[in-house]
Amino acid sequence: MGSKDKTGDGKPAFKGVLVAFLGAALITVTTVLPVEYGIDITGFGKLSGLLRNKKTPTLELNDFVAPVKNAILIQDTPLQILNRTIVLEEYEGIEFKLDLAEQQAINFHWHSSGPIFSDMHAEPYDAAPNEFVTYWKEKEQSGGQGTLITSFAGHHGWYWQNMGEDTITIDIVITGFFDEKLIDVTTK
After folding, report:
1. For 22-38, what is each residue's pLDDT tens digit?
2. pLDDT tens digits for 159-171?
3. What is the domain class of 79-187 according to CATH?
4. Lower CB density within 10 Å: C or N end of the chain?
């Protein structure tokens, strides 16, 4: 009791596969190659209009790239790296600021041994009393990092305050093109 091929000797199945293969080959040669690759072996692509004598459009780089404003900030001062450790006793606060010109860029990274009040802000040189710009303010923060590109000349930096009874240590690293003129480091 052997199994029997239901298609008989297998000839009809083979014929079906052969017809499908030849049909796919014919479609590929007459339509796909002329349309996709511009190859017209049979001449059918030109005759049917599938192959057009169009040139590939030339695209300019400006079609894809938008102009970038202020991509490079040329600096007159050398690269500086400033490292400081600040200790805040219970409920003590400190102003830590740099004297920066307009369009100066600094990268900063700071972290503290515990949560503190942090206010990153700046005042223009000719600021009226209580005139300042707040960049970033948090009631409880243990660190921060980023890049500041100044929009005006003035004193730019942080006010940090220890809000608890434990001594807090703040480590800050600032890199950028600035004169290492640390100003207004006062405790309150």
Report:
1. 878 788 778 777 777 77
2. 999 999 999 999 9
3. mainly beta
4. N
